[in-house]
Amino acid sequence: MTEKTFFAALVTAEQKQAYTVRLDGRELPAGVTGKLLGGAVSRLDLPVVGDQVDVTLHDDGAKAVIHGVRPRKSLLLRKGLASAGDAQPLAANIDKVFIVMGLDGNYNIARLERLLVAAWDSGALPVVALTKKDLCPPGELEARVDAAVLAAPGARVLCLSSLSGEGVAEVEAELAGGACCCFVGSSGAGKSTLLNRLSGREAAQTGEVRESDARGRHTTTGRQLYFLPCGGQVIDTPGVREFGVEFAGEGLGTSFSDMTELAAGCRFKDCSHSGEPGCAVAAAVEAGTLTQERLKSYHKLLRETQRHEQRGDLKKRLEAKRRLKSFGRLVRGIGEEKRRLRGG
Would you say the pTM of this structure is higher than 0.90? Predict the structure, then answer.
C-alpha cells in the first residue's frame, strides 16, 4: 500500500461542509474524510475557516481531502441553531474579533455586550468598529460612541465611514503585520461594505438595508477568508440577529471588568448585586457612575451562562458523547464478528 503524503493547508472558505483550502498559494476545493466526519461528536471536531488542516491531494493536485484539524490557538463560538443548542464555531486561529455595528438604526448596545462576551471568550482581542458615521442621527454621535466605549472596557473602539473612507486607516492599522481577524455583527451593520473598502474591490456582496429598522438581508451565507492589500486577513461571517452566550467562560467577567472592579468593594464576597447591604455596585448605580441598563445586561447574561452550566459543562458533555460513540462502534464490531463466525 502506498504511504499517503500529507500537506499542511489553510481553510479559507466553508459552505455547508464544502471547503476551500489554500496550499502553496493555490485555492483548492476540499472535502473531509469519512473517518473524520464519522468520528465527529460535534461541529467543533470539524474544520472551520482559519483552521490549519492536514490534507492529501487528488486528481493530479486539483482537489484536496482533509484528514485532520491541527490544534487551535483561538476559536469564536456561538450557540447553534439546532434544538440541541450545540456550539457553532465561526472562525479559528484569529488574532482579533472586529465587532461591527452601525451608528444608524443598527446601533444596539445590548447586542454589542453579547458579542463582546463571545469575543473575549474566543481567545482573541475584541475591536469595536462603529460604521456608518455619516448616517448617525444628528447630535447623537458623541453619546453613541461614549456608550460603546463604556460597554467595551479593554477593547479599542473605532468610529468610521466605509463610504467616505473616514477612519478606515485605523482599521487597516489593526490589521497590519498579517493579523488574522474576524468580522461579526448583525445583517446591515456594514461588514461587507467595510470589507470591500479594505479590499479596494467588490470582494463581498452588499445588500439593501430597510429604513425602518436598518436591518439588511443576509448577503454573506458562508464563511470566507480574504487576503487584504494591507497585509491582514479577514474572515467574513453571516450576519447574526441573535448571539447566545451559553458557552461563555471567562469572557463575561472580562467584558464586564468595570463591574468586577466595583464588586471588589462589596461587603459580601458572594454579593449578587441584587439589593444586598453594602453593595458597591448598587452604590455606583446610585451615584450615576454605572448605569442601571448595564447592571441589567450583566444579570441577564449571567443568568444565561448559569443555565448552561446547570445543564452540564460543554467539554464534559462532548467527552461523554465521544465515549458513547466509541462504545457503539465496539458493540457493532462485536456483532459483525459474531455474524462472520456464524457464516452469516
Answer: no
